[in-house]
Amino acid sequence: MRDLGRKILGSKQASSDPRPLFLSRSQMHSGTRRYDGEEEMTEILSKFGVEILHPERLPLEDQLSLWRDHRIFIGFSGSAFMNAAFFQEKNCHYSQP
Question: What CA–CA distance (Å, rounded) separates 85 from 6?
């Protein structure tokens, strides 16, 4: 999987971003669970410097770039964390409400 990720990203320059990423589901319209309080939680997390990401709005290549460039990922368990398979040494923190 890691080789496939490198092939998809090609020679794009990597950058290191120390901010954690929260993988939000708040803008999903179908096919996923919604969580009470997620919008309030994203407001609080953003005040602490956490970048809020809506993976469903990005093409795969852009999602993989974010996974390459960030080290810490936060969110609710689900398919958004599947991109972790493409990379090593990522800290994934997820909740199963």
Answer: 12
| Contact criterion met (CB below 8 Å) for 93 and 73 | yes
How many other β-carbons are positioned within 10 Å of the β-carbon of residue 38? 16
Q: Which domain holds residue 82?
A: 2-10+19-95
**What confidence score (pLDDT) does residue 11 get?**
67
Number of domains making up the chain: 1
Burial of residue 21 (number of CB atoms within 10 Å: 0-12, 13-18, 19+): buried
CATH number, domain at 34?
3.40.50
Phi, psi of 29 (to 5 degrees): -105, -20
Tokens of 66: 């974010």
Q: What is the pLDDT of residues 15-61, one digit of tens each?
A: 788 899 999 887 776 666 667 788 899 999 999 999 999 988 999 88
